[in-house]
Amino acid sequence: MSFSVEHFKQQFPLFAQPENRELVYLDNAATTQKPASVIEAIRNFYLHTNANTHRSSHRLARRATEMVEQVRRDVAGFLGAASPREVIFTRGATEGLNLLANSLCSQLRPGDEIVLSTAEHHANLVPWQMMAASRDLRLRFVPDIAGVPQFDRIDEVLSARTRIVSVTAGSNALGFRTDLDLLRNALSGRDLFWVLDGSQLAAHDPIDVQAMGCDFFVCSAHKFYGPTGIGLVFGREDLLAALPPWQGGGEMIASVDLLASEYAGLPHKFEAGTSSLASIAGLGACIDFLGRQDRAAMARHERALVQELHQRLHAIPELTLLSTAENNLGIATLIHPRCAAIDLAHWLDGRDIAVRVGHHCAQPLLQAAGHVATLRASVAAYNTRQDIDRFVAAVEEFVAQLDADEGTSSPPVAEHGASADAWTPDDLADLDLQRLRDTATWQDRYRILMGWAKAISRKEEIRTPANLVRGCESSAWLVHRCDRGVHRFAIDSDSRIVKGLGALLLTQLGDRPADGSARQRVLAMFDELGLAQQLSESRSNGFRALLERALELMGE
To answer: Which regions in the chain score pLDDT beneath 70?
Structure first.
């Protein structure tokens, strides 16, 4: 077998759509695109087979049930499980980890310990926090350096009370692989359950749970070219058989009376209700698709992209790479000292380059590393060297724009007194809205808005938790008062583009009486200027949150 990136990419219809032909998609750690065979399998299920499973005995129900159990057998092979009875279908890795947290912790005693790491996705942290709080359990963490777990020191946190070790097989924020051989040796022979979150690993490496030696393994199909809405939990059969179910309802029972129920056998006692059957059909097509690929050649291609990406980003002055190319799952994570990550992300979005910015659902890791948000570019096998060229060129162009901006006046620092209420609105009278209207491209509008950021002074006195408008991509602070019926605002942010957009927002809201039309006025203005995407629901925890907070303060 061999691997051709051109042939591989042609199997993904999204890239052939007219609006996507210039797309550079580097957000694969969030979700991958889907090959035509997966899309067609979902469509075919609804066209030809749609019926509920394991219940009715009519022709469609038989076909649907046979499909589900065949895919379960295929998944067992994909994961290296000993039996299909060791495979549980869930809605995703998050639900799978919640299932394990609830079922495993139901058997623990107060004071028992769960070992996690600082690098965990929130899905492998929050469920254990919830169980620890409700059952009086103790959470312990693998020693780390700047948030990166030092798994060779895991013995320091293992004790006679350790009952569960649940860690990532690969970081979604920095891309490093966990040394699973080291972990297996450290945990071997101990009276505990070992859970692996393999969400990132499954997209890049063949999985063999028996060789890994873990007790449980969790992943999501949408991370490895499969559909959304379907996840996998592997568990050793003897362990699953001894665990109680998490959710109750139809399908997971053998018999029910008014006071008690008898549960079904494996794996169905963990699959209450109707599963996402079309997604299971798509998962089966995905496994077949991957089985026809040269996985080793795909991995070599991805490694070459990651090496080149890190090498070229390293050459850009001031840019700080938090990830390393060695032993990496396809991720480059970076920051720039003179801008917020969201500023660069908006610049890239204007060039149709899709990346992720924020804390990547791994806040403890970024906090330990000393950062609030980073920019993450993540590759898959359909990415090309041309994608890397365009991404790096756009980053270089952005840095050059920063250098050009440095030649103009710096943003003022507001004078402030002791009181957090002693703030003064910025003077926005010189902002030229007509110039923004006359600008034809997003890139030029972006430059203007970045320039407008200089009209927003830094206001230490309003940077308090009470004024913080939280966002995954960026944070902003907003204050408001009403003087004789006229609304006045002040904002601040570490992001230049949020400041520039905030300045535009305040031209529509500030120094005006309440008239009930503020929302419509803002939406119309942003639509007119081609900036409506900044208010989309996908950014509801970013700039849109700032708008919603301002309208709330105005009583609209």
So the answer is: 406-421, 471-473, 537-542
Backbone φ and ψ for 332, nearest 5 degrees, come out as -120, 125
Q: Tens digits of per-residue pLDDT, 63-73?
A: 999 999 999 99
CB 225 within 8 A of CB 290: yes
Q: Is 161 helix (H, G, I), strand (E, B) or coil?
A: coil
* Burial letters 83-103, b for 16+ CB under 10 A, else e: ebbbbbbbbbbbbbbbbbbbb
DSSP letter at 474? -
Q: Tokens standing for 412?
A: 């003022």
| pLDDT of the residue at 408 | 52
Amino acid at the residue 324: T
Catalytic annotation, residues: 361
Q: Are strands 87-90 and 231-235 parallel, antiparallel or unpaired?
A: antiparallel
- Residue 84: partners with Cβ closer than 8 Å, 6 or more residues away: 69, 72, 73, 75, 76, 267
What is the spatial distance between Cα 206 and Cα 197, in angstroms, rounded to a whole number?
15
Q: Is the peptide bond before 267 cis (omega within 30 degrees of 0)?
A: yes
Cα(442)–Cα(20) distance, rounded to whole angstroms? 17
For the entire predicted model, the pTM comes to: 0.91
Which pLDDT tens digit goes with each residue over 190-201?
999 999 999 999
Termini Cα distance of the chain: 62
CA distance 89 to 455: 53
In this structure, the dihedral spanned by the alpha carbons of residues 82, 84, 86 and 91, taken in order and rounded to 10 degrees, is 140
Give residue 168's Cα distance to chain centre: 14
